[in-house]
Design a protein that fits this description.
Elements (H helix, E strand, L loop, with lengths): L6 H10 L4 E4 L7 E2 L2 E2 L13 H4 L5 E5 L7 E6 L2 H10 L5 E4 L2 E9 L6 E4 L6 E6 L14 E4 L11 E3 L10 E2 L2 H32 L7 H11 L18 H7 L3 H7 L4 E4 L2 E5 L17 E4 L6 E2 L6 E2 L1 H10 L6 H13 L10
Parallel strand pairs: 7-12
Antiparallel strand pairs: 1-4, 2-3, 4-10, 5-7, 5-9, 6-7, 6-11, 8-9, 13-14, 14-15, 16-17
Helix pairs in contact: 3-4, 4-5, 8-9
């Protein structure tokens, strides 16, 4: 995409693509013009000659997705797991995001796409949102699902929203049938939930062997509902070396509190539940009053954990990995470092390189 355009310039560029640009309040995500929110924004169709009136230099800009934009759909990746797994399920296309969540929006030309929100049933947080035309507006040419587009400024972080570097590799976003796009988005949401509550090893077993991992009942119910529409999960790429070794099963067989304690994490008891310091965000995230909020991990009896501050999570082995290297392992060398950390902490017997 062309860089250096003003807000009005971007509005003209989106209009030329056959999309429906919408003025958005400055550093906000609410559609509006003349300095105030406008509840009737769904019916607005800005003509080229009207662009200067609606799009001032300091305002944000959005696009009314679905029918008003000739079937343009946006896959909004709301959680870290979905962003990390997206390339496995979603084909390459135009992408954009902000500095803290790069490539978190993927655009497809998929006429007939109906808006769908897929939540974590435990935390109620959004996993993935497929934005097209809301079901109540299908056939009315109103759209109603709006995304803030480049080059706007994110409401909370103040970061610029911009295109990924490779978004100009194609002349326009990828074309995809609406049912196929919905199927892929549900696959992604299923996989994100499994990684969150059962770790990479749980997802590998689910994709390769169709083995159900141990999951909280509500999570399993949601996954079964999403898979109930005959979703055919793709075959996973060959597992990374060390992703399923016996030493990992040894760690996952221990209680979460014992693993957290051995990993050197501060454990606390809150309302009868054990919590621990998050090894991913540590003490970097604090409350607005400056209080230490490192007790962000709920140590579940099922053996899984999830940080409600930064979104990291997984099984006990993932907890050890974050404690050892501060992130998820991405190769054999990372797994070797995690193994050495586990051996040094008495969580695994020294049986050689994973």
């Amino acid at each position: 995409m062309t860089s250096g355009l003003t807000t009005a310039g971007w509005a003209g560029a989106y209009l030329a693509l056959g999309w429906c640009p919408i003025p958005v309040l400055t550093r906000d995500k609410r559609p509006g013009w003349d300095g105030r929110p406008q509840p009737a924004w769904q019916a607005l169709r800005v003509e080229r000659a009207e662009i200067p009136r609606y799009f001032a230099p300091d305002t944000n800009i959005g696009v009314n997705l679905g029918e008003p934009s000739n079937g343009l759909a946006d896959v909004d990746l709301d959680c870290p797991e979905a962003i990390e797994l997206a390339d496995l399920f979603l084909p390459e296309t135009w992408t954009f995001g902000r500095t803290g969540k790069q490539r978190s929006h993927r655009l497809y030309l998929a006429p007939g796409t109906v808006t769908e929100q897929l939540h974590d049933p435990e935390t109620k947080g959004m996993l993935v949102e497929l934005r097209g035309t809301p079901a109540s507006n299908v056939g009315r040419n109103l759209g109603g699902s709006q995304t803030v587009f480049p080059r706007s400024v994110h409401k909370d972080s103040g970061e610029p929203i911009d295109w990924a570097d490779d978004s100009d590799a194609a002349e326009r976003p990828r074309e995809l049938d609406a049912p196929e796009l919905q199927r892929r988005v549900r696959q992604l949401a299923v996989s994100a939930l499994i990684v969150r509550y059962s770790g990479p090893a749980g997802l590998a077993g689910f994709l390769d062997e169709r083995v159900w991992p141990a999951l909280p009942p509500q999570v399993e119910a949601a996954i079964r509902e999403w898979c109930g529409l005959r979703v055919q999960l793709p075959r996973r790429k060959p597992a990374r070396r060390g992703a399923g070794g016996g030493w990992i099963a040894e760690i996952n067989g221990r209680s979460p509190s014992a693993v957290a304690e051995a990993a050197g994490l501060a454990i606390r008891e809150r309302a009868g539940k054990l919590t621990a310091e998050c090894p991913a965000c540590e003490s970097l995230l604090r409350s607005s009053r400056g209080r230490d909020r490192r007790g962000a991990i709920n140590l579940r009896e099922s053996g899984s954990w999830h940080c409600f501050l930064c979104g990291a999570g997984g099984d006990a082995a993932a907890l050890v990995a974050f404690a050892a290297i501060g992130r998820k392992p991405t190769g054999a060398e990372d797994w070797h470092r995690v193994r050495e950390f586990a051996v040094a902490r008495g969580l695994s017997a020294p049986r050689g390189r994973p």
